[in-house]
Design goal:
It is built from 15 helices and 6 strands. The chain has a 6-stranded mixed sheet, sandwiched between helices. It has a domain at 8-21 and 52-117 and 214-386. It is globular, with a radius of gyration of 23 Å. A hairpin with a 5-residue loop joins β1 (55-61) and β2. Helix content is 49%, strand content 9%. By secondary structure, it is α/β, with parallel strands linked by helices.
Length: 391
């Protein structure tokens, strides 16, 4: 399978999300051993000084004449080390603690909820084999899940009758798994792969407590080979952090489920690479070589993201998006988000938005396919004021 799916460069958003399987490596193992209060204290104790602006205060008059005021925080969706700095604890958290609601990219979407893309993938042999490989992987996972369900025991049945019933049930489970896998749309397959991938990896040997020393040794090796001294530590995604430590603040999704589907479908002509990326993750194994490469990628990613935050522009190394991909992932959604932000209501007052940095910062190379969300707000007459790191 790997011959179809070469390792990809990281992109602004899909690259960020491609680190989720690495994030599980750091999150699932220790999160079971720390109490929430201890986690909060330890993360704060390890926070770093410095860091550039990544939160903005937005104020102004909506079109209906009502006053609006809210904050926007740029996030990575991965809880990278650079995000947990003094700026986060001294500037972001005090603002968030007073928010009326948290709005983030949390659209609920099940595999069977995703409709077909208006423009299908090109009917090449490679694409057909790629889609079929995904369906087969999902079918095998579904059947394994069904096979773990309790056995149907019929009281009074003879051994031969019970065996016949068992065989019939097994056949029905296999048929149902195949039917489900065949029914998913292209993006439904992506959702299913992400869902089942996480469930599958949760049982990996890498997440066992006895692997902690092995992981630490690999982290030190990654640092030595890259020359980076940045820490790789245990940190949740910022949105998860907010939800865990501030449960009293209402949470909502800025995306509707269809928004996410449209973003994926509009990423042509490089949608094939996006699909390949998700399918490639099925081939991941527990080998030290694979883990070491992921650790090295994360060290580089932290370094590049820190540069982006400090410069106020997405580093070129984080932005290998094609123009078409940028249109789908960013440009399709920004206008929809803008409309929701400017819809005045009691809920929109003092709301806090945690959104991907790629939607907020321009590209360092200037190859922007559309305005950033902050630029769009300014064009609507809103005041967009960066929250300074200094007092």
């Amino acid at each position: 399978m790997k011959k179809f799916y070469p390792r990809r460069k990281y992109s602004v958003r899909t690259g960020l999300r491609s680190l989720h399987f690495l994030l599980a490596l750091f999150l699932l193992l220790p999160c079971h051993s720390y109490a929430e209060a201890e986690e909060k204290t330890e993360i704060h104790a390890e926070s770093q000084a410095g860091g550039g602006v990544r939160m903005w205060e937005v104020t102004g008059i909506a079109k209906d004449g009502k006053y609006l005021s809210f904050h926007i925080l740029g996030v990575t969706h991965n809880g990278l080390e650079v995000e947990y700095d003094d700026y986060f604890f001294k500037k972001v958290l005090p603002v968030f603690s007073r928010a009326s609601a948290l709005s983030a990219e949390l659209a609920p979407l099940l595999p069977n909820m995703a409709g077909e893309c208006p423009v299908p993938l090109a009917p090449t042999m490679a694409n057909k084999e790629m889609i079929q490989a995904a369906r087969e992987q999902i079918r095998s996972v579904l059947q394994a899940m069904f096979d773990r369900s309790p056995k149907a025991v019929i009281p009074g049945a003879t051994q031969a009758e019970q065996e016949a019933i068992d065989q019939m049930v097994k056949s029905n489970k296999a048929a149902h798994a195949k039917q489900l896998a065949e029914s998913y749309s292209e993006y439904g397959l992506v959702v299913a792969m992400n869902t089942y991938f996480q469930a599958q990896k949760n049982g990996s040997a890498l997440y066992k407590p006895e692997s902690k020393n092995k992981l630490e040794a690999l982290i030190q090796q990654a640092k030595k080979e890259t020359g980076f001294t940045d820490e790789i530590s245990i940190r949740p995604d910022l949105v998860d952090y907010f939800r865990t430590h501030y449960p009293q603040i209402k949470v909502e999704s800025i995306d509707a489920p269809q928004d996410v589907v449209d973003a994926y479908c509009n990423s042509r002509p490089h949608r094939e690479l996006e699909f390949q990326h998700h399918l490639q993750r099925w081939a991941f194994n527990d080998s030290e070589a694979e883990v070491l490469q992921m650790l090295k990628d994360r060290l580089q990613f932290n370094r590049d993201l820190k540069k982006s935050i400090e410069n106020g522009k997405m580093a070129d190394t984080l932005s290998p998006f094609s123009m078409e991909s940028q249109t789908g992932v960013i440009c399709t959604r920004n206008p929809r988000w803008l409309k929701k932000m400017l819809a005045s209501s009691l809920d929109s007052q003092n709301k806090f938005y945690a959104l991907g940095l790629a939607h907020l910062l321009p590209r360092e190379d200037g190859r922007n396919q559309c305005d950033t969300l902050l630029t769009m707000l300014k064009k609507e007459g809103m005041s967009v004021k960066p929250v300074s790191p200094t007092p």
